[in-house]
Amino acid sequence: MLGQLAQFCFRRRWIVLITWIAVFVGLGAASGTLGSNFRTDFRLPNTESREGFDLLANGHDEQGFPGQIVFHADSGVTDPAVQSAMTAYFTEISTIERSGHQIRVMSPYDPAGANQIAQQGPQAGKLAFATVDFPRELSQGEMTSISEEIKSKAPTGVAGLTIEFGGDPFATFEPPSSETLGLAFAIFILIVSFGSILAMGLPIGVALAGIGSGVAITTMLSHVMSMPDFTTTLGVMIGLGVGIDYALFIVTRYREGIHQGWTPERATTVSIDTAGRAVMFAGTTVVISLLGMFLMGLAFIRGLAVGASVTVLMTMIASLTLLPALLGFAGRRIEVTRWRGLISVSIFALGLLFVGLKIPAVGLGLMFLALLTLLASFAVKPLRREVPRRAVKPIRQTFWYKWSRVVQHRPWPAALGGLAILVALLLPVTQLRLGFSDHGNDASDQTTKRAYDLLALGFGAGSNGPLFLVADVPAGTDPAVVDSVTKAVQSTPGVTAAVVNPGEGDTTITSWFVVPSTSPQDEATSTLVHHLRDEVLPAATEGTPVKVLVTGSVAANIDFSDYLGRRLPLFIGVVLALSFILLMIVFRSILVPLKAVIVNLLSIGAAYGVVVAVFQWGWGSSLIRIGNGGPIESWAPMMLFAIVFGLSMDYEVFLLSRIREEYDRTGNNKTAVADGLAATARVITAAAAIMVFVFGSFLLETERAIKLFGLGLAVAVLLDATVVRMVLVPATMELLGDRNWWFPRWLDKILPRLNVEGHVATDLDRELEELVEQESTRPT
């Protein structure tokens, strides 16, 4: 089927190209017309914090997303000029609304907000804050719009008055520019690795076509299901990785065919029916890994999974349909590179690099210089000359073949050494603590960081993340119960203040405002929440019908982390099991997929360990400017596993499919491993290098979570492409020998047969043998 698809796309390349252009433009126009409806639904099922939010809503005191307006006045916050300006400001912004939902402002000048003025220390009387409550019904875009409007209306004409804005609603998220850096690095690495402009350009062009289509479909799907606003960013990041990998693997196989003297059509057919099969199964594995996030049971994570899967699927389709059509246009010219193209593309890539580094003037200047160089080539003859082609070494004279033989001659030291490296890096995972970092880790030039520091200075670190207690106190309940809860909480170690709000009117809902002594991200705060829930509050209400719930954004974050921590083993287990079954069907082996799953799990665990050491323990944190150590973002292990396991299985399928192909051809496991590694090592190394640079560039961003994500991905891909692919795989396959391919006969009869090695190459070999036989019997 794939061979016939490749022939059709090659022969009808104009039809395929025009169809792709029409689909690309149509999807872009449709998504642009519909617009996006990205939104994040963080509601957790069956958690105490959610139950508390619902109870607060029943008491007409529903809590939304809290923010703070922190202000400092040298003359004191009660100075008439300061109080007049700030009171007018609070009155003005309290009228702001979107979609019929209005924000709520609690001013420190209101009687109920008297405790929002610093009373002790050097900031007494000079520092105060107002709380701003954003309704939960607002979309992300509406919240951003309101926060910008609040900032723009802040008074500026009062001497000695400083205003900062704290909390999540006022945090600014700047999308990472790593996609641009990734393209620049990809161009450089592919040119150096393959020495051909077309061999570099085709994978990038196909990847961009798939990514663009996937992002357009994802944008339209945001109207159907809940998707956070960074879904497309995640899709672009993953699509850039797998898209270049898939197309590069096929192009490399195509060039091998051209070097062997095949026609472009035959080379295209063979590459799609062999490498294309590996691409199809690798893409399926990535999609399985991503869709496994459905097991987490959260709406916004399902949206992330669907968005990323759609992008991967579109890049895979582009690799199997658009790429053979483009190979038909390229033909044998894929081996021809002229100096004008090499110089122009190199300068253009350097310009992209500066744009990604946020130096647009230099970047755009270099891009213009690249265009001038291309135009100048029409007048300068040397620029039109061909770049000398590199001599293509036979596989068994390459570095990677020699390296494989070195590892295979000493398999035990190589295997044990590789495992020792992974286990040593994995050890910090035993201390993993999931949670959410607070705004104390923001960059110093962010208003949220300055507001956080001011609040901690005047009111204590816990003021940046207060807790809310809520209970339904039925009519006729002894009032002493409420006093008992208040006194019990006030006397609890780790609590700075606890203020009761008995409610107004006919409501039976009572709430408490509790300020911990530690910051929201501190482990002691999490311990305090569990201590209140498990011991303090049950003891204070024992023998009464009153049940006090601990809620608020900090408690919700703790519940969120606990929930994901409980679901993570199920997610990992199901993805591993499904991947094992798929690999077992593909390679007709028990030990090969089992070893692949175990080793990939170890490499991902090693990446987790590095992340814990840097972001939780603080090792080398000053080098990447992330402030003090804190918890690991609770969503990070899940996302890292889904992406890295998918990418690592890509490399696994690419390598093992070629080894299996060589084994089926020769029946010799030793030479099959060496030949398969030598044939795929360069493309795997180039693809991994691109990903390491792309993900590593995330460390240049300002957001701690993005830095964490980038470091984890970069380390995982680096370990997978070096320690795993180049050491552990050849060493373990040498140790197992022919047992690699042992498969029970009864299982072989039950499972469906999926051939990932293809048929075209085998058919070609048979035709070649028949031709040689005919020539040998023909009379001279």
Q: Topology, please?
A:
Layout: H1 2-11, H2 13-34, H3 48-58, E1 65-73, H4 80-93, E2 97-98, E3 101-102, E4 104-106, E5 127-134, H5 140-152, E6 161-166, H6 178-194, H7 197-221, H8 231-259, H9 264-291, H10 299-330, H11 339-356, H12 360-376, H13 399-409, H14 411-426, E7 434-435, H15 447-459, E8 467-472, H16 480-490, E9 495-501, E10 509-516, H17 523-540, E11 549-551, H18 553-587, H19 591-616, E12 632-633, H20 636-666, H21 669-696, H22 704-736, H23 745-750, H24 760-777
Parallel strand pairs: 7-12
Antiparallel strand pairs: 1-5, 1-6, 2-3, 4-5, 8-10, 8-11, 9-10
Helix pairs in contact: 1-2, 1-9, 1-10, 2-7, 2-10, 6-7, 6-11, 6-21, 7-8, 7-10, 8-9, 8-10, 8-20, 8-21, 9-10, 9-18, 9-20, 11-12, 13-21, 13-22, 14-19, 14-22, 16-17, 18-19, 18-20, 19-20, 19-22, 20-21, 20-22, 21-22
Description of the structure:
With 780 residues, the protein is α+β, with helices and mostly antiparallel strands. Among the domains are: 70-170, no CATH class; 404-445 and 559-743, Up-down Bundle (Multidrug efflux transporter AcrB transmembrane fold), CATH 1.20.1640.10; 467-551, Multidrug efflux transporter AcrB pore domain (Alpha-Beta Plaits, 2-Layer Sandwich). It is built from 24 helices and twelve strands. Helix 18 runs antiparallel to helix 19. It is globular and about 90 Å long. It starts with a helix and ends with a helix.
Give the structural class.
alpha+beta
User: How far is the N terminus from the C terminus?
Assistant: 41 Å
Overall, the morphology is globular
Strand content: 5-15%
Arithmetic mean of pLDDT: 85
CATH topology of the domain at 404-445 and 559-743: Multidrug efflux transporter AcrB transmembrane fold
User: Residue share in helices?
Assistant: 55-70%
- Unreliable stretches: 760-773
Number of strands: 12
Q: How many helical stretches?
A: 24
CATH superfamily of the domain at 404-445 and 559-743: Multidrug efflux transporter AcrB transmembrane domain
Taking strands numbered 1, 2, ... along the chain, how are they ordered across the largest sheet? 4-5-1-6
CATH uppermost class of the domain at 404-445 and 559-743 = Mainly Alpha
The name of the CATH architecture of the domain at 404-445 and 559-743 is Up-down Bundle
